[in-house]
Amino acid sequence: MILAANWKMYLNENDSKEFIKKMHLESDIFEEKNIMIFPSHSSIRTVKNNSNLPNMIIGMQDCSEILDGAFTGENSISSINIDACIVGHSERRNNFNESNETIEKKLNNSLKCVKNTILCIGEKKEEKERNETYHVIEEQLSILPKDLQGSRLIIAYEPVWSIGTGLVPTNEYISDILSFVKKYLKELYSSEICEDILLFYGGSVDEENIKKLSEISLLNGFLVGSASCKFEKFKKMIKAI
Ligand code: PEP
After folding, report:
1. pLDDT in tens, the chain (241 residues)
2. Best mutation site among 7, 9, 89, 163 for ligand 1, i.e. most ligand atoms within 8 A of its Cβ?
């Protein structure tokens, strides 16, 4: 199991440094675990400079759809050495109106430039209520390149109605969606490629529910927001997986 921590804008540079220091003080707990940390962009360098846990991957929470040029304020994926990038997070889709077309460009940049790409997918509450979940997911997956090359692809199923709300779907609900994703991937790619694609769940995961969620057989890891920013909660989640 992999635990990916999306720190959003919760932790500033000092907070991030302190967090990493605490991890190193208890390195015996963390060093054997597969951890991905996504600090805010301005804290990436500090996190990188202060960490040397062998299995820890550091990445960007998002990247520009453009690689270089006169685009003030944008963060190109090639602007810093990182090993992972998240694209298509629902906060980008919904708060910044990112279309599937934009996310496709980001996805391709990430696949080309870094070792691990997390593509987030998931339905909104109203889409679920209109029974459109599978349709939405299919549309979000339709941007996957037919010729998948470059980084390891991770699909993170994150129902929007679960993010930051404390509402967590049942294991059965998540399993059904992941089976659908798996089937979609099998139709698109060879079995060798499919074996390398990982499936994550995200949405209100915390130290209380992670153990039960880990029972989902198709799951390879979690993308965790707010609970991953609190050291004690993070530690408990790491111990539980
Ligand atoms: C997220 O934003 O990716 C997320 C899963 O958030 P939270 O864990 O806070 O619901």
Report:
1. 999 999 999 999 999 999 999 999 999 999 999 999 999 999 999 999 999 999 999 999 999 999 999 999 999 999 999 999 999 999 999 999 999 999 999 999 999 999 999 999 999 999 999 999 999 999 999 999 999 988 999 999 999 999 999 999 999 999 999 999 999 999 999 999 999 999 999 999 999 999 999 999 999 999 999 999 999 999 999 999 9
2. 163
Tokens of 46: 């500090």
Residue ranges and CATH numbers for the domains of the chain are 2-240 (3.20.20.70)
Residue nearest to atom 1 of ligand 1 (CA): 225
Nearest Cα neighbor of 206 from 224, 194, 192, 191 is 224
- The number of the ligand 1 atom at minimal distance from the alpha carbon of 120 is 3
Active site residues: 89, 158
Cβ atoms < 10 Å from Cβ of 69: 8
Best probe residue, ligand 1, of 9, 96, 118, 158 (max atoms within 8 Å of C-beta): 158
Closest CA to 110 of 143, 65, 45: 65
